[in-house]
Specification:
single chain; 211 residues; alpha+beta; five-stranded antiparallel sheet; three-stranded antiparallel sheet; 5 helices; 28% strand
């Protein structure tokens, strides 16, 4: 009886653990959208306004439109323009929540030289075997600036917690994409040539653009 009781308890624990694992893997809960507090909202709004104004600080009393509602012409100038772009992790995810429908299925993490993405992908009901389930995908990319150019490397991609083989990623794992695909005047060269510095620290992304 004692042995049977132990086996029964062990079986129950195994069943519960398996059920929890399947729930987390096949039916992951939607992400909770990031909501900024009043101070964070003001700081983000100021940053976005600065981008819209070309980095220049426009006095609050200066109007953009005249009394007839016509946009007022303005001479272009870069003299006081800021080329520094800086966003916190919370600001990135809050903008994602506000401007897309991905807030509950996509979350971005900023760590030292690393941008990580967590994505939930609902599958159609007629999808083979996993129809109606939700796939959880995680990916990490190294993002840094070394030897006078940006460095972009795919660290890895995992599906349902299982790391994908490098062959399935086209052999691009831990390959500097700027180095690999640059040099032909394409998009990677345009990106690299326009960046003076780029860094990712814990919870923050910083980019400085060239003139």
């Amino acid at each position: 009886m004692q042995v049977l009781a132990i086996v029964a308890v062990s079986t129950c624990i195994a069943v519960i653990a398996t059920g929890v694992a399947l729930k987390l893997l096949l039916f992951p809960s939607p992400f909770k959208p990031v909501v900024l507090n009043a101070g964070e909202e003001q700081r983000l709004a100021a940053k976005l306004q600065a981008f819209e104004d070309g980095g220049r600080s426009i006095p609050s009393q200066q109007k953009e439109h005249d009394d007839q509602g016509v946009l007022i012409p303005e001479k272009y100038s870069e003299e006081s323009g800021s080329r520094q772009i800086s966003f916190t992790e919370r600001e990135v995810n809050a903008m994602l929540a506000k401007n897309t429908n991905l807030a509950e299925t996509l979350a971005i993490d900023l760590a030292e030289d690393m941008v990580s993405v967590k994505l939930l992908i609902p599958l159609d009901s007629d999808f083979p075997m996993l129809g109606g389930k939700t796939l959880k995908v995680k990916a990490g990319t190294e993002l840094a600036y070394r030897n006078g150019k940006p460095v972009v490397k795919i660290v890895g991609v995992s599906l349902m917690g299982v790391p994908m083989p490098n062959a399935w990623l086209g052999g691009l794992k831990n390959i500097d994409l700027v180095e690999e695909f640059g040099g032909s005047g394409g998009g990677w060269d345009i990106f690299a040539d326009g960046v003076e510095s780029i860094s990712v620290v814990e919870g923050r992304l910083n980019i400085r653009l060239k003139e």
